[in-house]
Amino acid sequence: MTPVAVEDLDPNDKETTRWFSPGLSVAEAVRATAETIQRISNEASLEAELLVRRVTGLDRAGIFARSKDALTPAEYHDLRRLTLRRMRREPLPYILGEWEFRGLSFRVTPAVMIPRPETETLVEEALAWRERRHAESDDAVTIVDVGTGSGCIAVSLATMLPGDRVLAVDVSRDALAVAAENAARHGVGGRVRLMEGDLLSAVTEPVDLIVANLPYIPDAEVASLQPEVQLFEPQVALGGGPDGLSLIRRLLRQAQTSLSVRGVVMLEINPPQSARLPDEARALFPGADVRVVRDLAGLDRVVVIDLAGRASS
């Protein structure tokens, strides 16, 4: 990290001046940073530790081992700069430049949505389907991640399913650049095919599994989201139309001609949408097995549409 010159700092910023002082120890820096950001964060202690780790280059064990060591001038200048960014409600993952998803570290920028734990439910469900399919046949399958963003879904699946083809589609070139970096980071750059396009428009071959975490927030609710989301995450990845289902409905219509005979669609949703989307899916895919999967918080999170009718209940 490039050190910040003293003249670039705001000496009158009351949020940080009270703890900004030469000679601050690692432990004091963690405590002071947590005190500073606690009014905007419910996880102030964790965020503070991550910020101090970022500026010092220490891992978690190192934070404890060096708790009494003083921060260098460059370290506490950088810590103050990053803390100011957090106080302005910039999400921590953007400040750090990376975030964890299913045990893997992903590069994130404001061009992509931050990976979230609930999306892991979508990946786990896809892996469970793949295991069932593999028990029936050794044939490789083609998977497409629609609206790939950071590539966290596509890359996670590619790392776990080395014999399958994974396509990652996004309408944003900037997002695809981030996804490409993440695919290379995890050694699957040669197996994740990145494609620019609107939903499935760029996909010309039959696919066996469609996974998608598309914008699903009703447009009217975007303005009420927390500042970290509303002000910093890409707007194109938030609003999903009047009821949040506009893009999902378009994807399902395209999927009618893109899915293989025994194909499956898995969609991350806003929990209230589970009251209507399954019925719409059944109307579009008569005879398909349609079910809703809950996330670890017990909320309806993923809609599964299985043309083979083999999804477990």
Give the terminus-to-terminus CA distance: 49 Å
Our count of helices gives 13
Q: Topology as H/E string? A: HHHHHHEEHEHEHEEHHHEHEE
Read across the widest sheet, the strand sequence of neighbours is: 5-4-3-6-7-9-8
Strand content: 15-25%
What helical percentage do the residues reach? Answer: 40-55%
- Overall mean pLDDT score? 90
Q: Helix/strand/pairing class, anyone?
A: alpha/beta
Number of strands: 9
Main pleated sheet: 7 strands, mixed
Quick description:
The chain is an alpha/beta fold.
Structure notes:
- By secondary structure, the protein is of the alpha/beta class.
- It has helices spanning about 15, 25-35, 45-55, 60-65, 75-85, 90-95, 120-135, 150-160, 175-185, 220, 225-230, 245-260, 275-285; strands spanning about 100, 105, 140-145, 165-170, 190-195, 205-210, 260-270, 290-295, 300-305.
- A 7-stranded mixed beta sheet has the order 5-4-3-6-7-9-8, with helices on both faces.
- The longest helix has 18 residues, at about 120-135.
- The chain is elongated.
